[in-house]
Backbone:
């Protein structure tokens, strides 16, 4: 915009924000020697200091932000005296429509509307979540009941298929004690038909050599367990707070229980075994519910005695299942490690390619140097030596990078030894960050994140299980990268993912912080963040076990702390505290 008027004709100038480049020309009323006049100006609202222009009679103002400014110009005469009676000139730059008061009022309305809508949505989510929890609790109760029935049925099948007496009653005792919480120890008195005496053949909790010399006749055991006891179910008896029982003198070296649950096993009207469960707590006596549960497989236990040899097959199958489980766990670990290895091997190619290329160039430089030495070209030789030095530095740099990746892989390939060791925290954290970063890069070539590291070099080595702590760090770093990357996908190229990792030496402790600038953790999910199987990731992208396992490793195994700080839309930071004196 161009407007030419004398200052005396116009005291105020109002312009649009688009016309914010102004040029003012002025002159002093000194008609004898205008060339000797000096000028100065100041623009109040922009810069309140006087700016000396000398004999220059114009000033250009550019990029003025919307607002009100006051331009004051003064001049000096031939004697150098400044004329302070300057007339101010007001300049008003109007803002764009989106920065007007009406626009801000509209923005405020939108924000309030958004808050209201968010509140309504969150309330509905909470109500829906409470309903889901109620359904989940009901489902868990039904599942618990179904599991009990299934386990009892499984135990019945085990007993029905029993052929080896040892494993039969071992299974019987263990499975039953799992379902009867009051049962702390157990023993099986089995009829030896050679001498018609009942002997202790199997135990749970007791040492068999403490009882294997003890024997009772059928009449003695009947007096001890059944004749003067309450038969709460057929063939099942309960003795609570027993006084002196028949045959106590034979068991004088054994701790006396405070409650007993007895199952008499009969076959062909003959009692062939007594299965006795003992409780030593006044607060947990046996009751009718325990007797009813035991009664569910009493008849099957009776028939199992005639099939003692069949249980050996079950033992072999059980051993096979255990081996299969171990193999599956090992395969899962190897598969996980293999996925990392495949990705990181791809990343290792880059530094190795650099090493190979710079080595080849260095060899060519040596050939050139040999020629220059023969020609006594000292300056060229020096230049070639400098190039060779730079190549060697590059080789060293990329070799260290490959070495860092390999060290991280070696650490995890050792598996979980469960043994603590003195470990450099900073080195471990750095290796894990590199391992996680290269693994993610191998999975997604578009993945990238800025990593800011701040390690406290005063931290001494501390004692912990390095493989377990590495799993925690890898999990937290992977989660942080995922959160930051998700925000980038939503925000576009204007957002830069950042991962900040720091360590700090505290009094008796070491602190590790892992922070991302992702979307943060919603307030509604924070209380569940360490619960098993809880995840906010889409189906197929997370098991919900990572943070739960990490919490167990830090808090339960290493007696440390694992907590987090988060602000929705801005950041999440996990803080690990490890004690130094945990040996």
Residues:
């Amino acid at each position: 915009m161009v407007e030419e008027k004398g200052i005396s004709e116009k005291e105020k100038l109002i312009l649009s924000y688009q016309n914010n480049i102004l040029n003012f020309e002025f002159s002093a009323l000194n008609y004898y020697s205008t060339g000797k006049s000096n000028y100065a100006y100041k623009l109040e609202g922009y810069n309140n200091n006087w700016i000396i222009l000398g004999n220059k009679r114009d000033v250009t103002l550019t990029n003025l932000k919307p607002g009100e400014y006051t331009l004051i110009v003064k001049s000096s005469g031939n004697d150098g005296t400044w004329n302070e009676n300057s007339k101010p000139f007001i300049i008003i730059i109007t803002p764009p429509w989106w920065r007007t008061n009406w626009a801000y009022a509209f923005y405020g309305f939108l924000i309030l509307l958004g808050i209201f809508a968010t509140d309504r949505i969150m309330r509905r989510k909470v109500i829906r979540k409470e309903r889901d929890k109620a359904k989940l609790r009901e489902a868990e109760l039904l599942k618990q009941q179904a599991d009990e029935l299934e386990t009892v049925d499984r135990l019945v099948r085990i007993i029905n298929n029993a052929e080896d007496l040892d494993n039969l009653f071992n299974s019987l005792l263990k499975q039953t004690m799992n379902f009867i919480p009051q049962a702390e120890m157990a023993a099986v008195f089995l009829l030896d038909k050679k001498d018609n005496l009942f002997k202790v053949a199997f135990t749970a909790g007791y040492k068999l050599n403490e009882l294997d010399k003890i024997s009772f006749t059928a009449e003695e055991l009947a007096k001890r367990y059944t004749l003067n006891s309450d038969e709460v179910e057929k063939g099942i008896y309960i003795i609570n707070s027993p006084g002196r029982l028949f045959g106590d003198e034979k068991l004088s070296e054994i701790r006396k229980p405070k409650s007993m649950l007895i199952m008499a096993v009969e076959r062909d009207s003959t009692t062939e075994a007594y299965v006795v469960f003992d409780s030593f707590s006044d607060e947990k006596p046996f009751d009718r519910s325990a007797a009813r549960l035991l009664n569910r497989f009493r008849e099957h236990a009776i028939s199992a005695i005639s099939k003692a040899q069949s249980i050996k097959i079950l033992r072999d199958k059980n051993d096979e299942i255990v081996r299969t489980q171990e193999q599956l766990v090992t395969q899962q670990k190897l598969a996980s490690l293999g996925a990392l290895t495949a990705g990181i091997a791809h990343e290792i190619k880059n530094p190795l390619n650099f090493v190979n290329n710079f080595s080849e160039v260095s060899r060519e430089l040596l050939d050139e140097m040999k020629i220059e030495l023969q020609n006594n070209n000292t300056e060229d030789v020096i230049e070639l030596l400098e190039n060779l030095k730079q190549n060697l530095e590059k080789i060293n740099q990329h070799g260290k990078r490959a070495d860092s990746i390999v060290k991280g892989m070696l650490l995890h390939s050792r598996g979980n030894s469960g043994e603590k060791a003195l470990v450099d925290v900073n080195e471990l954290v750095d290796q894990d960050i590199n391992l996680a970063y290269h693994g993610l890069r191998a999975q997604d070539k578009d993945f990238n994140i800025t990593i800011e590291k701040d390690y406290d070099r005063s931290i001494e080595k501390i004692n912990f299980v390095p493989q377990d702590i590495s799993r925690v760090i890898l999990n937290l770093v992977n989660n942080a990268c995922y959160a930051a990357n998700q925000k980038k996908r939503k925000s576009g190229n204007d957002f830069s993912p950042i991962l900040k990792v720091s360590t700090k030496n505290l009094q008796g402790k070491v602190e590790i912080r892992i922070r991302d600038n992702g979307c943060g953790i919603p307030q509604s999910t924070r209380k569940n963040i360490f619960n098993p199987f809880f995840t906010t990731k889409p189906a197929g992208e997370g098991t919900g076990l990572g943070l739960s396992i990490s919490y167990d490793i830090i808090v339960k195994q290493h007696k440390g702390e694992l907590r987090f700080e988060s602000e929705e839309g801005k950041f999440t930071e996990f803080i690990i505290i490890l004690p130094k004196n945990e040996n």
The radius of gyration is 42 Å. The chain has four domains: 12-99, 161-296, 315-410, 414-579.
